[in-house]
Amino acid sequence: MSAAPAQAAGCNLSTGPYQRQVEAFLNLWVNGVQSASDCRAIQAFQAQHGITPTMGYAGPLTWQTMSTMLAQRAAGNTPNRDGACPTNVGRIACVDLTRQLSWIQDGATLRYGPVPVRTGKDGTETRTGHNKIYYRNIKHWSTIYNVWMPYSQFFDGGIAFHSVDKSMWNPPGSGGCVNMTPTDAKAYWNLLRNGDDVYVYGRKPGT
User: Where's the L,D-TPase catalytic domain (predicted)?
Assistant: First the structure.
């Protein structure tokens, strides 16, 4: 009689409501039934992106994260194919809250991105609207959160582009700022200047 497969620590072997979708996303055998190997793979994904509880359960938050990733991939090199971000103002940084994507364009010409971003969580949503960068600080210290905000570029009150050292898909989100990877935040710093336009639109899933 063969031994039962080893269960990862803290693994939930219940079949989740998004089992099939999660299996397909992770290139697992799609049968809609949780297994020990499924659970370990889902756990690894959750741990990578800070999704808690990290128990390998195919629940709403895990699938919401994967759905956002799929929407980002679908954007390809034409994130503004629907024309939602203005193309008549010259250089502009676009932020699509729905897809958690940002890019820089000159008119209709893509200059950088699109790149995944991490925007405000429920209760501290990143505000939508058309603004301009008004203050830049390459090594900004937040007196509100007591953290460094490298490559900060403020465009709407206390809302800024800045880098963070965590996954862009880490829920529930930021305190309102547009979080970026260090590489992308540095690129934005080099491409943008005070007075450049920023357009934020859409609605982040879960807010």
Answer: 90-201
